[in-house]
Amino acid sequence: MADMSELRFTKGHGTENDFVVVPDVDARLDLDADLTRRLADRHAGVGGDGVIRVVPTAAAIDESVRAMADRAPWFMDYRNADGSVAEMCGNGTRVFAAYLRREGLETADEFEIATRAGIKGIRFEGDVVATNMGRWHLPEEERARADGFDALVHVVGHGDPWSALSVDMGNPHTVVALPEGVDLDGLDLLHVPEVRPVPPHGTNVEFVRIVGPAHIAMRVHERGVGETRSCGTGVCAAALATSFWAGEAEPTQDWTVDVPGGRLRVRALPHHEVELAGPAALVADGMIDLSSL
Length: 293
Ligand SMILES: N[C@@H](CCC[C@H](N)C(=O)O)C(=O)O
What we know:
Catalyzes the stereoinversion of LL-2,6-diaminopimelate (L,L-DAP) to meso-diaminopimelate (meso-DAP), a precursor of L-lysine and an essential component of the bacterial peptidoglycan. It catalyses: (2S,6S)-2,6-diaminopimelate = meso-2,6-diaminopimelate. Homodimer. The chain has helices at about 35-40, 65, 90-100, 140-145, 230-245; strands at about 5-15, 15-25, 50-55, 75-80, 110-115, 120-125, 130-135, 150-155, 160-170, 170-175, 195, 205-210, 215-220, 225-230, 255-260, 260-270, 275-280, 280-290. The longest helix is centred in the last third of the chain and has 14 residues, at about 230-245. It is built from 5 helices and 18 strands. The strands form 2 sheets. Strands 5, 6, 7, 8, 9, 10, 11, 12, 13, 14, 15, 16 and 17 form a 13-stranded mixed beta sheet that branches.
C-alpha cells in the first residue's frame, strides 16, 4: 500500500444493507482483509456489512476484471465485513452507482459497472436505482427440476432441517421455503445456519415466507457477515426460487420482496437475466485516521 495515513470514506446503504465506500481513484490503496475488518467494525471502525473500494477497472489486479474496462470504467471491489472477498453485492451496486454519480465519475442515467461477477447495467429511475444483475442459474438444475430442492438447512432451535434450493447469482445462495407454522421473525440467525451438502465456497442463506401473489418476506444470513437487514442478490435468489417452486421457469411478473430494511423489486429480463430495483442512500462522509483504527 502507498504510505497513507488518512482515508476518505462515505457511508451508504441500500435497504439498510450498509457499506463503507472508500474511493481509490488512483489505485493506491491495498485493501486487505485486516483493513476491511477494521473499517467494517461497528465498535472500533466506521461500521458496515461490507466495504466497497471504488477503483478504475483498468487498474484492477485480476486480468478478468481489467478486461471489462472498455465498457465499465469503474470496478466495485466488494469485501464482506469479515474481510472475505465476494463476487457480487446487489445492494452494493446501487450504492456504488449513487456514489459514482454524486462524485461526477458517471453522469448519465444509464451506465455499466464492473464486478467480479461480470458487468452489471445500472439505470436511474428517479430515486430508484435498477441493476441488471445478469444471468442466474440453478447449480443443481437436474435435481432441482426433479425434486424442487437440492439442499438441507438446519437452524438452531428447530429439530428437522428444511429443504432448500441453491441459486447462483454470481455469488452463492441457498433459499429455504419456511414450512407453515414457522415464524420468520422468530428465527435465531445469530448462529450460522448449517447447510448440507456443505457448499464449497460457503453460501448466503435466505428464509422466505409468502405474503401474497408475487410478494414475499425474507430474512438472510450473509456469508462473511451474519444476519443483515437486506441482501440484493439474496432477494433475487429468493424471488427466483419462489417462482420456480410455483412452476415458472422464469418469473412472469414483478416480485416484491420485503426485508427487515425495506422493500425491493425483482423483474425477469430476457435471456435469463434478472433486474433488482430499490433505493440507495449516501448518509455520511468523513476521513479516517488509519493509525487509530
Ligand atoms: N449484501 C450483498 C451480498 C454481499 C456478498 C455476500 N455476503 C457474499 O459473500 O456472497 C447483496 O446485496 O447482494
